[in-house]
Amino acid sequence: MKLKEKLKKKQPEKKNKGISEKKSFKEKIKSSFNGKYIKNGSYSMLISVIFIVIFIVLNMIVNALPTKYSEIDVSDQKLFSIGKQTEDFLKKLDKDVTIYQIAQSGAEDETVSKLLKKYEEASDHIKVEKKDPVVNPKFTSEYTDAEVSSNSLIVECGERSKVVDYGEIYESSVDYNTYSYTTTGFDGEGQITSAISYVTSENLPVLYTLDGHGEKDLDASIREDIEKANIEIRSLNLLTEESVPEDTACLMINSPATDISEDEKNAILEYLENGGKAMIFSDYTEESMENFDAVLENYGVERADGIVIEGDAQHYAMQMPYYIVPEVKSAEPVSGFASEGYFVLAPYAQGIRKLDSVRDTVTIDSILTTSDSAYSKVDLNSETLEKTEEDIAGPFDLGVSITETLKDDKQTQIIYYSTANLMDSQINAAVAGGNEQLIMESLNWMCSSDEAETVSIPSKSLQVTALTPTAYDVSFWKICTMGLIPGVFLVIGFCVWLKRRKA
Length: 503
What we know:
Layout: H1 3-31, H2 35-64, H3 67-70, H4 84-91, E1 97-102, H5 110-122, E2 126-131, E3 152-157, E4 160-164, H6 166-169, E5 170-175, E6 180-186, H7 188-200, E7 206-210, H8 220-228, E8 232-236, H9 238-241, E9 248-254, H10 262-272, E10 277-281, H11 290-297, E11 301-303, E12 307-309, E13 323-324, E14 327-328, H12 335-339, E15 346-347, E16 352-354, E17 362-369, E18 375-377, E19 392-393, E20 397-405, E21 411-417, H13 425-430, H14 434-447, E22 460-461, H15 471-502
Parallel strand pairs: 1-2, 7-8, 7-9, 9-10, 10-21
Antiparallel strand pairs: 1-3, 3-4, 5-6, 6-22, 11-16, 12-18, 13-15, 14-17, 17-20, 18-19, 20-21
Helix pairs in contact: 10-11
């Protein structure tokens, strides 16, 4: 057979073969749509749809939850949270308060916005609204004639209102070498809570500070805290006034350098014996203070001669036994502070001793106490700090609260601290604000009333807090770093050397 004829015979076979392969491919496509594949595909699709629906529902539930459950504040200073003191204050709130955040849409401070959300969730009486000054240019003029900066707040309750400027929320310091500003603190909670307290209070308390005897000026930081607690500060000269004013919420006697007069003593005692309240500070002085001491003795306490020296290394700091780190007792005026575990630093304090000859109606509770090893150094010109025979053995109180229940449901309240250095800002910084909080909680206890709830929240520092260890802690870490740790490595090294030598 010729080659041409052979090729013609083979061509139909190829055509048939191609048709056969094509039919086979179609059959495969048809088979992919049989019942089994459709069933498995529908099941996978159903599972995917159910998963997506569950995810969407969970997301909606989480978004509906309060931020205290759905968000965790992991910032070191809890910038997005409110403290227990504010929470307790908001629980007592019985008036409707509106907080306006003045900022352009999209330019709100996120930290402030989140903090305001916490306030709104903590009380049904708090309502937060955002006001865009571009959309409502005349809104702020209803509350103040001054220019209101972006992200400032306006707190309103009825006819009372207060503007919280954005510059007051963030604290800053200036470097005069470069003329640059550094943000050092966040005072959002303190300013907002103070503003709410202001607009909801009927009558603000007045703190009178006794003058005319070389008293110490209030430290700027303490004065700022008192004003933030909505307590008005006024000076009082009893030589001209002759009596303590009736509107006095609390009388402060801040470490007089010279004694008060007999008439002033009688005026102070008359005020206290009629249910008055006083915060008293004293410092060591060589001047005779008979009348001042008479006020204290009338309420069952006296000052020990000299300056307290602490004999226990765990109760003094900076390697100076007269920089005392006292134990904080859970007395009623400072019960909240005592539970928070802050330290207090009390330099150059005098010992406070309780008298046995005091009225049964008077109750004296310790606030700050030394260790049993403390003693009062009587001779301050002595060349040694070691205890001598003339020194007075401790322990001592360095702070006490005194109450006396009177007729007509009145109660005298006195808080006495035996060193005014508690209010020094540098001393306060050494214990991360512990002194400041102690004093403000003491003052709030006396100034709060049914008409006005005083509350002062300290700002939250954005800087690294200095560590002030006690003398015991310093000695312990010296032994560890200079002796124990090198000794461990020395022993390990010797063991390794000995093992290799024997090998």
